[in-house]
Amino acid sequence: MAEKRVKLRISGVVQGVGFRAFVWRNARSLGLKGYVRNVPDGTVEVVAEGEESALRKLVELCRRGPMLARVDSVVEEWSEPTGEFTSFSIAW
Questions:
Q1: Do residues 30 and 50 make contact, with C-beta atoms less than 8 angstroms apart?
Q2: 66: which residues sit within 8 A by CB, 6+ positions away?
Q3: What is the pLDDT of residues 53-64, one digit of tens each?
Q4: Mind telling me the catalytic residues?
Q5: Distance (Å, whole) CA 71 – CA 12
Q6: What are 2-15's pLDDT values in tens digits?
Q7: Alpha-carbon gap, residue 42 to 30, rounded angstroms
């Protein structure tokens, strides 16, 4: 399957509940590269690149979130990968 890039904007109760660490652990276990960060408007942004099947699994996991989170919506934006990332990180 081809490499892709997905940008997610996740809203709900997603800050202060371990969401970034949840995404980081799952993205790394799926072999993805990119970042996750809190956005000042209260959402979480994820930018990930890798195999499309792994990205789709990450999207599915983000729709559930960690135990204390409440995910109201996940907006997906798919594109071609840029290759700019060497690993998956938590951005500040």
A1: yes
A2: 17, 18, 19, 21, 22
A3: 999 999 999 999
A4: 20, 38
A5: 5
A6: 899 999 999 999 99
A7: 26
